[in-house]
């Protein structure tokens, strides 16, 4: 296979640390040759890390895409609301595209991206639904398709966000306010809706959802609290303390780069004194739900419940699959699959092999596959943009259901959106 070249838009956690490190470890298959990033410190760090030339270092994606095509492929990993325009222009210029999820935070633009995927079907256009690439979910899919436990009947799937992760990303962080970014079920959980589609092997027919922002809101701010954790008398008792999360807890190491591009202890201490990541969780401008449950029925009559919650210790996904002749329980991060066939008296426990971390091995496997597809010009994509719009439509339908207390016919919802009827945000 030929060695490919890649340009990157966005030097955040995903653009700099999730996908491109694969190319540092495997320089024979490809090279990162360009970066577009508006924050100077991140741009310079990325430039140094990947040895980017000055001529291929850009302040904005507009600057990068104003040039003639300079690479084989483009990774788009900037803010959710800025995905559509660079993806559209990149496809028009002939780039192969790897787009971070969600595809967009705008329903109309998601539909248009699906149409562009069909129009430019001679190019690789993939979305980063990395769960399809994990050994854990691949093993579940293998068991389902084998029929060794009979027919799949129902799924219970849980997105355990983790109290500390929710405080970081969805209360203090970039995805805290749906008016500026996305509803939580889109920004965090289009992954999960996509994996339900994949496991069931069927389209979702109906969805109904309920949820609220219950705890991390101003109503729960007390008189002896402070706007910044460093000044709060209750800080030592508060599990959401920025001091605990960023200076004392090792759970969130990978996300520290969001707090400061050079996350030394000294820099983090300065950042939480008056920065956004040092704010009291009860005094932020957040509005996304902290718990939500969705009930789904698929066209093949499989039913599912999907429960997302901020109030869990661990950041993981747990799942239970119920079949006509058995059941499976699983924990994604612990990498445990417990299989019980009703005709047997024992359980079989499997630990799928994960060679690389990052979404249980999914990040590494996805970028490896993307590069291979681009190099070989193979169009058999596991997470094509054409497929991915389904989970995004489901997310918007779920949010519409939550806000309006309605059972939503997903296909009708999609058709209404295509016909420009006002149904979403």
From TrEMBL:
Belongs to the Gfo/Idh/MocA family. Pfam families: GFO_IDH_MocA, GFO_IDH_MocA_C. Coiled coil: none annotated. It comes from Romboutsia sedimentorum. InterPro entries: Gfo/Idh/MocA-like_OxRdtase_C, Gfo/Idh/MocA-like_OxRdtase_N, Gfo/Idh/MocA_Oxidoreductases, NAD(P)-bd_dom_sf. This is Gfo/Idh/MocA family oxidoreductase. SUPFAM superfamilies: Glyceraldehyde-3-phosphate dehydrogenase-like, C-terminal domain (SSF55347), NAD(P)-binding Rossmann-fold domains (SSF51735). It comes from the Bacteria. Residues 4-125 form the Gfo/Idh/MocA-like oxidoreductase N-terminal domain.
């Amino acid at each position: 296979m030929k060695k490919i070249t890649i340009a990157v838009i966005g030097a955040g956690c995903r653009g700099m640390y999730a996908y491109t490190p694969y190319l540092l470890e495997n320089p024979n298959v490809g090279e990162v040759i360009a970066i577009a990033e508006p924050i100077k410190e991140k741009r310079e760090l990325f430039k140094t890390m990947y040895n980017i030339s000055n001529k291929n270092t850009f302040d904005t994606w507009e600057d990068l895409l104003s040039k003639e095509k300079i690479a084989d492929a483009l990774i788009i990993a900037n803010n959710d609301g800025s995905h559509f325009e660079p993806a559209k222009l990149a496809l028009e210029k002939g780039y192969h595209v790897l787009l971070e999820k969600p595809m967009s935070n705008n329903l109309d633009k998601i539909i248009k991206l699906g149409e562009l995927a069909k129009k430019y079907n001679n190019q690789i256009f993939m979305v980063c639904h990395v769960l399809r690439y994990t050994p854990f979910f691949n093993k579940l899919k293998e068991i389902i398709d084998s029929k060794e436990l009979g027919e799949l009947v129902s799924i219970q799937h849980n997105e355990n966000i983790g109290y500390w992760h929710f405080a970081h990303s969805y209360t203090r962080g970039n995805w805290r306010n749906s008016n500026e970014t996305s509803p939580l079920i889109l920004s965090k959980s289009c992954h999960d809706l996509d994996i339900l589609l994949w496991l069931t092997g069927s389209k979702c027919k109906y969805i109904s959802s309920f949820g609220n922002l219950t705890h991390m809101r101003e109503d729960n701010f007390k008189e002896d609290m402070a706007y910044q954790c460093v000044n709060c008398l209750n800080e030592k008792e508060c599990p959401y303390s920025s001091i605990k999360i960023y200076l004392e807890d090792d759970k969130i190491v990978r996300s520290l780069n969001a707090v400061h591009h050079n996350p030394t202890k000294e820099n983090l201490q300065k950042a939480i004194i008056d920065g956004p990541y040092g704010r009291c969780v009860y005094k932020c401008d957040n509005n996304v739900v902290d718990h939500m449950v969705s009930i789904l029925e698929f066209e093949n009559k499989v039913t599912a419940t999907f429960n997302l919650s901020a109030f869990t210790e661990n950041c993981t996904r747990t799942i239970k699959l119920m079949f006509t002749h058995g059941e499976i329980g699983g924990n994604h991060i612990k990498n445990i699959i417990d299989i019980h066939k009703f005709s047997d008296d024992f359980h079989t426990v499997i630990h799928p092999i994960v060679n690389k971390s990052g979404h249980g091995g999914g990040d590494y496997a996805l970028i490896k596959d993307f590069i291979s597809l681009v190099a070989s010009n193979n169009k058999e994509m596991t997470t094509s943009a054409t497929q991915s719009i389904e989970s995004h439509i489901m997310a918007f339908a779920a949010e519409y259901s939550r806000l309006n207390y309605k059972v939503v016919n997903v296909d009708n919802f999609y058709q209404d959106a295509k016909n420009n009827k006002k149904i979403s945000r």
